[in-house]
Design brief:
single chain, about 475 residues, Ubiquitin-like (UB roll), DNA polymerase, domain 1, 5-stranded mixed beta sheet, 5-stranded antiparallel beta sheet, 17 helices, 20 strands, about 30% helix, about 20% strand, binds flavin-adenine dinucleotide, binds FE2/S2 (inorganic) cluster
Length: about 475
């Protein structure tokens, strides 16, 4: 059995005496005695535990911010990790990010500051422009309860693309990757190919598959569960591929939201805009499409989009392969068609024909880092002002993400105008009996679901009318 090896602030670490379900945050604070990263919420919301994970691309190191509270230690194998302790230079002088935070008076009690520093470090390294939008996006996964965000934002603007933000170049030595990590009665498999992954799935059907761990990580950080056997997908190269052919975009199951964004921007801009509202950068740098599908949450954000787009999911075992529409994959509340020996291999999203209009609307209490109260994905095929085909898929309205069958039937073949939408509230009430909870009442959900169709109709037909509506 090989140990887990990784660079931690430039020093090689080799670990074989730690439980594989130890969170990275516990490891840092406990075993490594690096207490800069803090535990604020232990559920991916506050960003106090943010660290940066690096990889080398085209000879240069690229870092992404992640929540260490949700990650399992073996997810670090072969990585280059930087914590806040690794920012300052060897002579003790501050990193430009730390300097900027100090100069902007961007800290009071300091609890959140290491997390902000690491989010800002990843931002500065990425070379993005210091626009309000970019800064907002880069810091949306970090909360501060005393300073206020203006000085923190100012500090972030100052270090955007800072020429001295790079750290001294250190790369992970080319050592054989760990493929199996055992500790006491626990085992963690790290397959590197789809074949290895399928073999492991067949021989260990009870093992838990972990993608980014942003859903499962809560079981470790909050409930302190110790999974006996785990299979990590983040090293499976076939599951990390993003490809296009003449007809579709195909995403490997272990592709993260951040990795998919450039392709989504190119082929499905509405989907890209939604993906940018899934969690925070820290979450999007870890969370995968397969994870969102397998969790099958009624408010899993990608599901209504994938159903509206007619996406197909490819499932594999060692001996069989099958594909099915995403719609058929979701069987019930958090229940899917995945068999015990199957894995999600790819998701194929067909390109939209020119005649189709597509939009996604996410309603949540907070714009950033919040789960949906209602999410709607609409698609209409327009032919001389007539809706030849209409799809309306909602999350947050039922136990599963679901098409509004009565509404779809009533609108298909009709003139695509505002009069046609008279009476859609009653149709939606036939399709859904939503629940009331702290996010919204049943009446709110139904009203919102109908009004979003109206918004979609306006947006797809009359831009001047939309401008008037938005001005209200
Ligand atoms: C703070 C926070 C904010 C969030 N915000 C949002 C949000 O706005 N919208 C939203 O939709 N979700 C949100 N989530 C939920 C989560 O980030 C997503 O569902 C994410 O896509 C899960 O992917 P993962 O790879 O991290 O899943 P994991 O936690 O690794 O796994 C989830 C499930 O998928 C299974 N699985 C993973 N890969 C495979 C595979 N290849 N084959 C078969 N099964 C597999 C696992 O066994 C597990 O059952 C949020 C989570 C957190 C912690
Ligand atoms: S401790 Fe709050 S995000 Fe990790
Ligand atoms: S400075 Fe106290 S929480 Fe941010």
């Amino acid at each position: 059995m090989a140990p887990i090896r990784f660079l931690l602030n430039g020093e090689m670490r080799s670990e074989d005496r730690v439980s594989p379900t130890t969170t990275v945050l516990d490891y840092l604070r406990g075993t490594a005695r690096l207490t800069g990263a803090k535990e604020g919420c232990a559920e991916g919301d506050c960003g106090a535990c943010t660290i940066a994970i690096g990889e080398t691309r085209n000879g240069a190191a690229h870092y992404r911010a992640v929540n260490s509270c949700l990650m399992m230690l073996p997810q670090l194998d072969g990585c280059d990790i930087v914590t806040v302790e690794g920012l300052a230079k060897e002579d003790g002088s501050l990193h430009p990010v730390q300097q900027a935070l100090a100069e902007a008076d961007a800290t009071q009690c300091g609890f959140c500051t290491p997390g902000f520093a690491m989010a800002m470090f990843a931002f500065a390294q990425g070379g993005e422009a210091g626009s309000d939008e970019n800064i907002h996006d880069a810091l949306a996964g970090n909360l501060c309860r005393c300073t206020g965000y203006r000085p923190i934002g100012e500090a972030c603007r100052k270090i955007a693309g800072h020429p001295d933000s790079a750290l001294a170049e250190k790369s992970v030595p080319a050592l054989p990757p760990c493929t199996e990590y055992k500790h006491d009665e626990q085992i963690c498999f790290l397959p590197r190919s789809l074949d290895q992954f399928l073999q492991l799935r067949a021989s260990h059907p009870a093992a838990l598959i972990v993608g980014g761990g942003t859903d499962l990580g809560l079981k470790l950080s909050k409930e302190r569960e110790r999974f006996p056997a785990v299979i990590l997908t983040n090293g499976v190269r076939e599951l990390k591929t993003i490809a296009t052919d003449g007809g579709a975009l195909e995403l490997g199951g272990a592709v993260t939201y951040s990795e998919a964004l450039p392709s989504l921007d190119m082929y499905f801009p509405a989907f890209a805009a939604l993906a940018r509202r899934i969690g925070s950068r820290q979450i999007r740098n870890l969370g995968t499409f397969a994870g969102n599908l397998a969790t099958a949450s009624p408010i899993g954000d990608t599901l209504p989009c994938l159903i509206a787009l007619g996406a197909q999911i490819a499932l594999r075992t060692t001996t069989a392969a099958r594909t099915m529409p995403v719609e058929d994959f979701i069987l019930g509340y958090r229940k899917t068609a995945l068999k015990p020996d199957e894995v999600i291999a790819t998701i194929r999203i067909p390109f939209l024909p020119n005649s189709d209009r597509f939009a996604i609307y996410k309603l949540s209490k907070r714009f950033d880092q919040d789960i949906s109260t209602v999410i709607a994905a609409f698609r209409v095929t327009l032919d001389h002002g007539v809706a030849r085909d209409f799809r309306a898929v909602y999350g947050g309205m039922a136990a599963i993400p679901k098409r509004a069958a009565t509404l779809e039937k009533a609108l298909t073949g009709k003139t695509w105008d505002t009069q046609t939408l008279d009476g859609i509230d009653a149709l939606l009430a036939q399709d859904f009996k939503p629940m009331s909870d702290q996010r919204g009442s049943a009446a709110y959900r139904l009203r919102a679901a109908a009004n979003l169709v109206r918004r979609f109709q306006i947006e797809t037909t009359d831009e001047r009318a939309l401008a008037r509506v938005e001005a209200l």
